Description:
mainly alpha, about 70% helix
Amino acid sequence: MIFSFKQKKVVTLIFLMLFSFVVFNFALFGQSQTDNYIESKGQKNVQYLVKDIHSIEKPYNYIIGKTKYFYFEILGILSIIGAIMFGVLHGFGRYIAYKKNPVKMEYVNSEFIYNIIIRLGHWINAIAVVVLIITGFSMHYIGPSHQLGLVHNIFGIVFFVCNSLFIFYELVTFDFRQFVVEDWELKEGIVKQAMFYAIGIFKQEEHPYHMERKHRLNPLQKMAYFSVMFFLVPFVGFTGITLFSPDLMSFFMNYIGMENMKYIFVLHLLSAFAMVSYLFGHIYLATTGDTIKQHFEVMITGYHKVFKYIKS
């Protein structure tokens, strides 16, 4: 059966609404089972302590604001510093190259790339991620408070729902194909794009791959975004939901045991470091378009400005 464009939009909207309803009721059902689960496990006090960030103790062996994992902390901090330094040094090199040989371009036209669903989801998710990073690391390094915990949990739910809807939308509309690296890209596209970032961009060469409606991402972006959006983000969400409500994730907690909850904290922390590193890299690489603001504008307006390079 072939649907028209409008029919596809209606079907997609219906699926999104149904999925939201299922997610909401699943969470609600999980909460309604809290007392039964806790009492059957005989861990009512322990379960309460998970939600009381002032009183986390054994069997978790992790106290927010006090427990530190030296090697993991160093590894995470170094990864963030590395991402920042890459942006600073690479950006400085681009600045010097531009001063020596300014690029001349001519505006051609604008092509519509991102619809309102993708753009709105992107910015809601971006706000949620920033708030989660600030509140999460504040509690980990400065110390917990009920206010920080409440804000972190609220935006954690926003993050989880937003990304669940994103994955569902990608699957229903088959838009996930934009993130899949094709055979030819594995053979030559990735190397070609990497060489551009490493050498070509400093020679003021034209981008090897330009954004189009059917091909929004270059080969390296496909690899990075697919890994982050379909693996790292769900992992952060899964560990976060497990910490937020162990009873909701009782099927998982029954398997690993409450005594191993501390490892969920560690995994959540490591994935948070990875998210911060990715965020810095993502923001910097967004400036590597034909103009510095080109990629930012397309995520605001939906339109990608096309430029023609003029050889001097």
